[in-house]
Design a protein that fits this description.
This protein is mostly beta strands. The protein is built from no helices and six strands.
Length: about 130
């Protein structure tokens, strides 16, 4: 059962997994010291949540008594570039020539630094970039 509610800053969803023990379905019992894993697909938020809100919490309850729980930090959420294009616009557009690149994009979040890394072709050099 998944319940979601909107807060003033974000949507908060709670996933409740009910495990019922019975004589017929003994395989559903949550045994001690046995690792368990769950996989779910999620959509990342558009903006990075505040540090105090960017975590996952898991609790283990039985008969309305909290037996254990843990909180782990979530992963960082990075904004996307929209309308990204890169063009060679300098007058010298040949191998080995010093030329100009035009980077055009719309950031989805505020930033103070742009880090550009070129992996191909080998030998690409930004040493004289201005």
């Amino acid at each position: 059962l998944c319940n979601c509610s909107n807060t003033s800053k974000a949507q908060l969803c709670t996933l409740l997994l009910m495990v019922s023990e019975s004589n017929v379905w003994r395989a559903e019992v949550v045994a001690a010291e046995i690792p368990m894993s769950f996989k779910m697909s999620v959509i990342n938020p558009l903006l990075l949540p505040a540090v105090v809100e960017n975590f996952w919490r898991m609790e283990f309850w039985a008969n309305q008594v909290l037996y254990s729980g843990s909180v782990v930090p979530s992963w960082p959420v990075y904004g996307l570039f929209q309308n990204l294009s890169i063009a060679l616009v300098g007058t010298e557009q040949r191998a080995g020539a010093l030329s100009d690149l035009l980077f055009d994009f719309t950031p989805s979040v505020f930033g103070t630094t742009l880090d550009i890394r070129i992996h191909e072709p080998l030998g690409f050099d930004f040493q004289v970039a201005r």
